[in-house]
Amino acid sequence: MISEKTLSKAVLDASFPIHSDLGPGLLERVYERILEAELIEKGFNVRRQVPIPIKYKNLEFDEAFRADLIVEDRMLVELKASETNHPVYYRQALSYLKLSRMRFGLLINFGAEHLKDGIKRVVNGY
């Protein structure tokens, strides 16, 4: 099984050149498609726009949200393309982890001027 550290490193190693080459300012779905292709090229199993259901009391929705990327069926990657890193993005990613019953993920904001400033690791259960 691939470690969390290895998965995170692979996603970040693919993200930095994308941001360097294309810069901020594109639509989120552009970064999403390119990152998906880069990770698949590196041999990772990647699913894009995966519907995640929610159950609340007697209500059930087949699609509470769509995960931008799920890598190796273990890691959720939530992408943004915003000039600012709103705190709600982190809380949103954490809620997505809880709903998907995954342990860890990355929040990557390609809209940041410097990509390193747009990256947050998100962990469910701590």
Tag the structure with descriptive keywords.
33% strand; 126 residues; alpha+beta; 5-stranded mixed sheet; globular
Structural commentary:
- The protein is an alpha+beta fold and 126 residues long.
- The protein has one domain.
- Helix content is 37%, strand content 33%.
- It has three helices and five strands.
- A five-stranded mixed beta sheet has the order 1-2-3-4-5, with helices on both faces.
- α1 packs across α2.
- The longest helix has 19 residues.
- The chain is globular.
- The relative contact order is 0.19.
Could you give the topology of this structure?
Blueprint: H1 4-22, H2 28-41, E1 46-56, E2 59-71, E3 75-80, H3 87-100, E4 104-109, E5 119-123
Helix pairs in contact: 1-2
Stretches where pLDDT falls below 50 for ≥5 residues?
none
Individual helix count: 3
Tell me the strand order in the biggest sheet: 1-2-3-4-5
Q: Radius of gyration over alpha carbons?
A: 14 Å
- Bulk shape: globular
- Number of DSSP strands? 5
Mean pLDDT: 95
Total domain units = 1
Give the helices and strands as they follow along the chain: HHEEEHEE
Largest sheet: 5 strands, mixed
Helix content: 25-40%
- Please report which band the strand proportion falls in: under 5%, 5-15%, 15-25%, 25-35%, 35-45% or over 45%: 25-35%
Structural class of the helices, strands and pairings?
Answer: alpha+beta
Terminal residue distance: 22 Å
